[in-house]
Amino acid sequence: MIELNDVHKSFGKVEVLKGITASVAKSEVVCIIGPSGSGKSTILRCINGLESYDRGEISVEGARVDSNDRSIVSIRTQVSMVFQRFNLFPHRTALENVIEGPLYVKKEPREQAIARGRALLAQVGLADKAEVHPPKLSGGQQQRVAIARALAMQPKAILFDEPTSALDPELVGEVLSVMRKLADDGMTMVVVTHEMGFARDVADRVLFIDGGVIVEQGAAKSVLNQPQHPRTQDFLRRVLHPL
Amino acid sequence: MQKFFHDAVEFVPILLQGVWLTIVVTVGSLLLSTVLGLVWALMRVSGIRILVWLSAALINVIRGIPIIVLLFYIYFVMPDFGIALSALQAAIIGLGIAYSAYQAENFRAGIEAIDRGQIEAAQTIGMGWWLTMRRVVLPQAVRIILPPYGNIMIMMLKDSSQASTITVAELALQGKLIASSTFKNTSVFTLVALMYLTMSIPLILLVRHFENKANRK
């Protein structure tokens, strides 16, 4: 469903992606792990055109991703994104955040959008927070609203950019459990994460990225339990046993 | 003091005609400068190089010319190019253009203060540039823009007196005319000052109201 073929990307003189080739099938959950600055988030940002790429090709269901072309709008409605810092609209309530896209981008009738928006908030466990503005919600609640907002576009896939990294430790679980439910329901997901437990339990495949290249990839359990490459081994040792 | 009240009764009705023109000039040029300023600001943040350049150039040219010269130009020079405006029209257009530069810089600062993540979030739900501006950026920028906007309103009210230089009989000119024919300078100009002050106070209160409302959200 999502294909990356030899994707290169530089910021100024620094090449952050040095030929990434990967694919994500429908209903697959792929976790991208690796040290910070390795280019993980940049991959996600290139997939839905928040960044342009210099060389190679990215396509979503056969349509080429080009951040400078009008077609990017239709790709973005198919591939939603959830951010590390939530990026909810602070001047709108939780419900208004969720229905913003359906109402103004997809031009759904208002009643229908509201009904679906409420159902989505209920799905992420926030039915009672519909009328609350984001600054009054906890980080975990905000991230769940952000997931509901992404789902409201009825996307074919969702990209998660370190969705739990900005959360207090005790709030991580509520977000991960919503994501796990999505995975169980067959949503196609690409997740940049440092949550190795989530990757091991939920992901079908794991990509380990370091220095702008995919160092190792494979079934989640085999990469995380028996990493083959020394860099993967080193990274996992440091993440799982920091002391 | 008694003399002052006596003068006031006599002059206030005449001065009020000037007040009316002052309000017309202020409101007219405020609306024009807001619309033009928003256009310049949106051009400036559009990311399209020619528009960015054009808007920057326009703002600098407008900022670099004194309001009074701009008024003279529109009122006395434009007729040579076949565009003859009434003094009132010229005053509104001149002040509107002059202040559009300040409005634009204020709007731009407000727009650029909005977190980049907000724009990215809007993009990822499929919003285009204009929808992102209208639904996400501008509503949040308003609370940043309003306090300086209020100050601009008050400055415009006072600068509307420059319209007198092209014969618009607004409050300042009306006062000057009465004073020069009656020699009652003290009474007349005290009344004129009080009238400007009276018009400024509601604006000051209005701005405070907007600020409070924006902060409560």
TrEMBL record, chain A:
<dbReference type="InterPro" id="IPR050086">
    <property type="entry name" value="MetN_ABC_transporter-like"/>
</dbReference>
<dbReference type="GO" id="GO:0016887">
    <property type="term" value="F:ATP hydrolysis activity"/>
</dbReference>
<dbReference type="InterPro" id="IPR030679">
    <property type="entry name" value="ABC_ATPase_HisP-typ"/>
</dbReference>
<keyword id="KW-0067">ATP-binding</keyword>
<dbReference type="Pfam" id="PF00005">
    <property type="entry name" value="ABC_tran"/>
</dbReference>
<comment type="function">
    <text>Involved in beta-(1--&gt;2)glucan export. Transmembrane domains (TMD) form a pore in the inner membrane and the ATP-binding domain (NBD) is responsible for energy generation.</text>
</comment>
<dbReference type="GO" id="GO:0005886">
    <property type="term" value="C:plasma membrane"/>
</dbReference>
<keyword id="KW-0472">Membrane</keyword>
<keyword id="KW-1003">Cell membrane</keyword>
<dbReference type="GO" id="GO:0015424">
    <property type="term" value="F:ABC-type amino acid transporter activity"/>
</dbReference>
<dbReference type="InterPro" id="IPR003439">
    <property type="entry name" value="ABC_transporter-like_ATP-bd"/>
</dbReference>
<keyword id="KW-0029">Amino-acid transport</keyword>
<comment type="similarity">
    <text>Belongs to the ABC transporter superfamily.</text>
</comment>
<protein>
    <submittedName>
        <fullName>Amino acid ABC transporter ATP-binding protein (PAAT family)</fullName>
    </submittedName>
</protein>
<feature type="domain" description="ABC transporter">
    <location>
        <begin position="2"/>
        <end position="236"/>
    </location>
</feature>
<dbReference type="InterPro" id="IPR027417">
    <property type="entry name" value="P-loop_NTPase"/>
</dbReference>
<keyword id="KW-0813">Transport</keyword>
<dbReference type="GO" id="GO:0005524">
    <property type="term" value="F:ATP binding"/>
</dbReference>
<dbReference type="InterPro" id="IPR017871">
    <property type="entry name" value="ABC_transporter-like_CS"/>
</dbReference>
<dbReference type="InterPro" id="IPR003593">
    <property type="entry name" value="AAA+_ATPase"/>
</dbReference>
<keyword id="KW-0547">Nucleotide-binding</keyword>
Automatic annotation (TrEMBL), chain B:
<dbReference type="InterPro" id="IPR000515">
    <property type="entry name" value="MetI-like"/>
</dbReference>
<comment type="similarity">
    <text>Belongs to the binding-protein-dependent transport system permease family. HisMQ subfamily.</text>
</comment>
<feature type="transmembrane region" description="Helical">
    <location>
        <begin position="81"/>
        <end position="102"/>
    </location>
</feature>
<keyword id="KW-1133">Transmembrane helix</keyword>
<dbReference type="InterPro" id="IPR043429">
    <property type="entry name" value="ArtM/GltK/GlnP/TcyL/YhdX-like"/>
</dbReference>
<dbReference type="GO" id="GO:0006865">
    <property type="term" value="P:amino acid transport"/>
</dbReference>
<keyword id="KW-1003">Cell membrane</keyword>
<keyword id="KW-0472">Membrane</keyword>
<keyword id="KW-0812">Transmembrane</keyword>
<keyword id="KW-0029">Amino-acid transport</keyword>
<feature type="transmembrane region" description="Helical">
    <location>
        <begin position="50"/>
        <end position="75"/>
    </location>
</feature>
<dbReference type="Pfam" id="PF00528">
    <property type="entry name" value="BPD_transp_1"/>
</dbReference>
<dbReference type="InterPro" id="IPR035906">
    <property type="entry name" value="MetI-like_sf"/>
</dbReference>
<keyword id="KW-0813">Transport</keyword>
<feature type="transmembrane region" description="Helical">
    <location>
        <begin position="188"/>
        <end position="207"/>
    </location>
</feature>
<dbReference type="GO" id="GO:0022857">
    <property type="term" value="F:transmembrane transporter activity"/>
</dbReference>
<protein>
    <submittedName>
        <fullName>Amino acid ABC transporter membrane protein (PAAT family)</fullName>
    </submittedName>
</protein>
<dbReference type="InterPro" id="IPR010065">
    <property type="entry name" value="AA_ABC_transptr_permease_3TM"/>
</dbReference>
<feature type="transmembrane region" description="Helical">
    <location>
        <begin position="20"/>
        <end position="43"/>
    </location>
</feature>
<dbReference type="GO" id="GO:0043190">
    <property type="term" value="C:ATP-binding cassette (ABC) transporter complex"/>
</dbReference>
<feature type="domain" description="ABC transmembrane type-1">
    <location>
        <begin position="19"/>
        <end position="207"/>
    </location>
</feature>
